[in-house]
Amino acid sequence: MTPVLSRQLSPAPPAHGDLAVRVIVVDDHAAVREGIRAMLGSELDMEPVAVTATAREALSLAQRARPDVMVLDYHLPDEDGLSLCLRLKSTPAQPATLIYSAFADEHLVALAIIAGADAVMSKACDPAELCDLVRALAGGASRPPAINPAAMEVAASRLDTEDLPIFGMLAHRTPPAEIAATLGMEEPWLTTRRWAMLKRLTAKGSRRTPPVRS
User: Fold this and answer.
1) pTM of whole model > 0.90?
2) Integer Cα distance of 27 and 112 in angstroms
3) CATH 3.40.50.2300 fits domain 7-138
4) Which of 193, 117, 208 is nearest to 161 (CA)?
5) Hey, where are the domains in the chain?
6) Is-contact 22 65, C-beta < 8 A?
7) Reduced to 3 states, what is the DSSP secondary structure of residue 16?
8) How far apart are CA 200 and CA 96, in angstroms?
9) Cα four-point dihedral sign 11, 101, 81, 133
């Protein structure tokens, strides 16, 4: 797939006012990107400041535009949305992140927990629900993706033993700094372990990874 360059949508100041929720949309489908942009842009309190198809451009845009919320597809041409989420959560700005996928099942939720996503939502949801969730995340509300015990057990069975405490604390929304302090490790090393956990759960032979199209 040929990467689609991002398109800056609204130079500062935002068209909807300085207090508008600033959103960046990251999706490899042009029609989906433009649909979300149009939907959010029709809301008086939201400003889709940029859209892009790639994780690399998304990181650059996040540094420049300082969005309140980033809506991330799972499948991207250069890096998946979960890896992008973990990268974003490792930056000083740490925007709220929403994994927005057509395949938002328990397996994806387990991955999103490790990546530090603030929420997971299916693309089949009502558009009004997406807008409400973006508003809530921008306001600092906690909407952690829920996971049932059976799915937790399946994910845990794929992880190294030393990573199980990390997974458990992440599932209970323990801040990374607190996890690192509890386990006696530096935060960069914790991030490294989370990368390894994502890799293990998405490797060939795992229970299931999301399909090619999302």
Assistant:
1) no
2) 16
3) yes
4) 193
5) 7-138, 151-202
6) yes
7) coil
8) 25
9) positive
Amino acid at 85: C
Q: How far apart are CA 32 and CA 137, in angstroms?
A: 21
Confirm if 81 and 55 have CB atoms less than 8 A apart: yes
> CB-based contacts of 64: which residues, under 8 Å, 6+ apart?
none
| Residue bearing tokens 């991330």 | 72
Q: How many residues does the chain have?
A: 214
Could you list the pLDDT tens digit for every one of the 214 residues in the chain? 333 333 344 433 344 456 899 999 999 999 999 999 999 999 999 999 999 999 999 999 999 999 999 999 999 999 999 999 999 999 888 999 999 988 878 888 999 999 999 999 998 889 999 999 999 999 998 777 778 888 899 999 999 999 999 999 999 999 999 999 999 999 999 999 999 999 999 885 454 444 434 4
Give 140-151 as a DSSP string. Answer: T---PPP--HHH
> DSSP 3-state assignment of 47?
strand
